[in-house]
Amino acid sequence: MLYLVQVIVIIILFACVRQTGVADFLGISRNTVDLEASRLITDGWYRVVRHPLYLFSILFLLCNPVISVRWLLLTLLSTVYFLGGALLEERRLLLKFGDKYRDYQRAVPFILPRIFTR
Fold first, then answer.
1. Higher pLDDT residue, 34 or 19?
2. What is the number of structural domains in the chain?
C-alpha cells in the first residue's frame, strides 16, 4: 500500500515540476535574470500549498514501507533541509514578486494544506 502512495506522490511531483518548468526546477532557466519574464505560479498544487515539491518529497520519504535507522535519519535531515530551503525561497520570492507574493502567502498555507476551510 505504501508503495502505491509513493507512486502517486511521484506522479504529483512530476506534475509540479512540469507546472514550474523543468529548467526553473533545475535552476538553469534563462529567466532568472529577467524578473518580468517569470510568473508567480498560484494554480494547480500551488493553490493548495506554497511549496508542494517539498511537501510531496517529504511524504515520499515518510511513506517508505521499510524504515531503517538510516532511512529515518535521511528523512529527518531531508525534512530540515526542505524546510530551510522553503524559508530561503520565501525570502527570494518576496523580493522578486513583492506584494503579489505577500497576498499569496496570506491565502495559501506554507507547507501543510488546510484540511478545513472557514
1. 19
2. 1
